[in-house]
Design goal:
The complex is a heterodimer of chains A (111) and B (115). Chain A is mainly beta. Chain A is built from no helices and eleven strands. In chain A, strands 2, 4, 5, 9, 10 and 11 form a six-stranded mixed β-sheet that branches. Chain A has a five-stranded antiparallel β-sheet with strand order 1-3-8-7-6, with no helix packed on it. Chain A starts with a strand and ends with a strand. In chain B, strands 2, 4, 5, 6, 9, 10 and 11 form a seven-stranded mixed β-sheet that branches. Chain B has a four-stranded antiparallel β-sheet with strand order 1-3-8-7, with no helix packed on it. The chains are: A mainly beta (111), B mainly beta (115). The A-B interface holds A 6, 8, 32, 34, 36, 41-46, 49, 88, 90, 92, 95-96, 98-99, 101-104 and B 4, 33, 40-43, 45, 48, 50, 58, 90, 92, 96, 100-109.
C-alpha cells in the first residue's frame, strides 16, 4: 500500500459546482497536510496548509483533515474554469522531513 | 523575478550523455529539493539538501547526483542519461525556521527528453 493514495481522476464538473478532492494515507505519524495546485506546464503552488486535524477555510477553498480516519479533503465552492488544474495532496510527519505527495487529481471546470 | 528559477526549461539529449539541470533561489531558504514528475506516478523525490554541507538521497536517487554549490544553488546531474529519465524535473525550496516551514516552493520545471 502506498503511503498516500489519491484518485487521479480526471474529474469534470460544470462551473459553479462544489468539488471534493480527497486523499487517504497510511502513516498515522503524519501531522502536516498541504494541498498544492498545478496548472499545465507550471510548478506546483501551495494552496492550503493544515496542521493536525480540523478544518481551514480560505475563500472558496476548505481543507479538512480527519486523522482518525487518515483522510484529508479539499472542497472548492462555486468552482470556476480557472480552477481547472491538477491538485496534489502532500503531507509529512514532522518539520525537517521530506513531503510525501499524492499522485494528483486532474480537475476540469467547464463554463 | 521568480523566486525559484530552473535552467534549462527544456532539454533534449541523447542516451549516454551527461547533463546538468540547475536551480537557483532568491527566497533565502536553507532547504532545497529535486523531484521528478511522471504521468501516473506523481512527484517523486530524487535528492534533498538541508544546508550546503548536507545532501540526502530521496526515493529514486539511482542514476542521479547533486551538488549544492551555495545556499542559493542546487544542481542535478544525470551522469549517463537513459530514456526512462525522460520526465519533468522540479526544484523546490523550504525554510528551515519559519511558520509553516514544511511548505515547499517550486520552480517552473525542466522538461527533459532523452532519446
Amino acid at each position: 500500500q502506498k503511503e498516500v493514495e489519491q484518485d487521479p481522476g480526471p474529474l469534470s464538473v460544470p462551473e459553479g459546482a462544489i468539488v471534493s478532492l480527497n486523499c487517504t494515507y497510511s502513516n498515522s505519524a503524519f501531522q502536516y497536510f498541504m494541498w498544492y495546485r498545478q496548472y499545465s506546464r507550471k510548478g506546483p503552488e501551495l494552496l492550503m496548509y493544515t496542521y493536525s486535524s480540523g478544518n481551514k477555510e480560505d475563500g472558496r477553498f476548505t481543507a479538512q483533515v480527519d486523522k482518525s480516519s487518515k483522510y484529508i479533503s479539499l472542497f472548492i465552492r462555486d468552482s470556476q474554469p480557472s480552477d481547472s488544474a491538477t491538485y496534489l495532496c502532500a503531507m509529512t510527519r514532522q518539520a525537517g522531513t521530506a513531503l510525501i505527495f499524492g499522485k494528483g487529481t486532474t480537475l476540469s471546470v467547464s463554463s | 523575478d521568480a523566486d525559484v528559477t530552473q535552467t534549462p526549461r527544456n532539454r533534449i539529449t541523447k542516451t549516454g550523455k551527461r547533463i546538468m539541470l540547475e536551480c537557483s533561489q532568491t527566497k533565502g531558504h536553507d532547504r532545497m529539493y529535486w523531484y521528478r514528475q511522471d504521468p501516473g506516478l506523481g512527484l517523486r523525490l530524487i535528492y534533498y539538501s538541508f544546508d550546503v554541507k548536507d545532501i540526502n538521497k530521496g526515493e529514486i536517487s539511482d542514476g542521479y547526483s547533486v551538488s549544492r554549490q551555495a545556499q542559493a544553488k542546487f544542481s542535478l546531474s544525470l551522469e549517463s542519461a537513459i530514456p526512462n529519465q525522460t520526465a519533468l524535473y522540479f526544484c523546490a525550496t523550504s525554510a528551515a525556521v519559519a511558520r509553516n516551514q514544511e511548505t515547499q516552493y517550486f520552480g517552473p520545471g525542466t522538461r527533459l527528453l532523452v532519446l
